[in-house]
Sequence to fold (417 residues):
Amino acid sequence: MNILAEKKILVGVTGGIAAYKTVDLCSKLVQSKADVQVLMTQSAQKFVSPLTFGAISGRQPITDLWQLYQGAQIGHIALAQEADLLIIAPLTAHTLARLAHGMADDPITAIYISGTMPVMIAPAMESHMWEHPATQENLQKLLERGAVMIGPESGRLASGGEGVGRMSEPTTIVEHTRMLLGRGGPLSGLRITITSGGTREWVDPVRFMGNRSSGKMGVALARVARDLGAEVNLIYGAMSVDPPLGVNLISAIRAEDMLRETLAILPETDVLISAAAIADFRPVETHDTKLKKESGKGIELERTPDVLKAVGERRREIGKPRLVVGFAAETSDLVANAKHKMENKNLEMIVLNDVTAKDAGFEADTNRITILTRDGAAESLPLLDKEQVAYQILHRVRGLLGAQSIGWSPGIGSVLP
Ligand code: CTP
Fold:
C-alpha cells in the first residue's frame, strides 16, 4: 500500500537541461507503482530521448498532439479527465508563458486547459529569465489558478553561474506529490503527534548518553500519516534520517525536552504515537567543561521522567489525546512485557518489536511487529518495510477511532438507525 499506487500521473517535460532529472523522477514514481504517462515538447526531445522516458515509464511518451487522435476518442480530453495529477518538470519560461496564455499547441499545453486535475510545476531556467517581470507575471497567473509550485532552488546553473533557477530534486518533487495526493485522505481532520528518534543526556559539552534509535520508524509514521491527510507534529530527538516535508517539526533532545514538548502539544493532539527511544536514566550532574580523565570521576545516574506515564495523567484532566499508542522494545518475554507496559502506561495500543532481530527494530529499514490492543488482541505481522508498518499501525488507529468518533459501539441489542 502507498499513496502513489495506481495514481494516474501525467509528467510534462519541457526543453531544459534539468530534463535529465525528470528521468529519475519518473523512475521514482513508477517504483511507487504510479501509472505514469510522459508528455514531451519538441525542445524536451533535444535534451532527452523519448526512448529513455518510454523505457522508464513503460509507455510511449506523447510527443505530438496528433498522436493522441486515434479512434473515436479526443485523446487530450480523455487523458486530462482521467489524470489524478499533472506535473510539469522542468517548466521553462517559454512553456510557462504558453500555459499562462491558454495556448494549446502541444500535448502539455493542450492537456493543461482540458482538465481539472491538480497541477504541479517545477520551474527551471537561468536566473535572469526567472526574475524577468514577464516570467513573474505568467507565474502569478498559474498560481492564481491553483498550480502548486516546487522550487526553483538556488545553486549552480547550466550557464556555470550561481543563482535561483535550479529544478528541485526528484525526491523533493515526489514528497510534494505524495502530500498533494493525500489531501482529504482517510486521516484528514485528525491531529497526530509522533515522537521519534533517540534522546541524548549530556555528561559534559562533548559527551552524552544516547541509544541506537535511528528515527526511521517515527519518520515513516509521520510521512504516512501526512500522506493519509492528517495534520502531523513530529517531536524528534537524535535521528539519522531527514524528517518528512509538510509536518510540524519540534526538536526535543533530552527526555526532559520530550516531556515538555509532548505535554505542551496534548491539547491540540487527537492521537499520540510514542515511537521515540527515550532514555530512562540521565547523569545527576551535567558538567559545563569537559571532564578530564585525571578527575577519575564516575557518572552517577538518576531516573528521567516517563513521558507516557505523564501523558496518561494529563489526559485524565483534559480528555486529550483520544488515543495513545506506545512502542515496546523488548529482548525477552516479549508479549507479557508489552502487555504490562500497555496497561501500566494506560495505552490503547502497543507496538511490540523484538530488537534482537537483525532485520527489524533499531537502524533497520524493516520491522517485524506485533500489535496489541486493550481488547486482548495480539496480531503479528510479517517482516515489512517501515512505511508499510506505519500503514498497518495507522489503519488500526483509524479503526479504533472510527467506532469512537461516530459515538456507536455494537452493544447487545443495539439497533442501527
Ligand atoms: N517511554 C516514555 N518515557 C520514557 C521511556 C519510554 O514515554 N522515559 C515510552 C517510549 O516512547 C515507548 C514506551 O514508553 O513508547 C515503552 O518504551 P520502552 O523503552 O520499551 O520501555 P520503558 O518504559 O523504558 O521500560 P523498560 O526500559 O523497563 O523496558
User: Anything to note?
Assistant: The CA atoms of residues 29 and 174 lie 7 Å apart. Residues 386-405 form the longest helix (20 residues). Residues 403-417 have pLDDT under 50 and may be disordered. The domain at 185-415 is CATH 3.40.50.10300 (Rossmann fold).
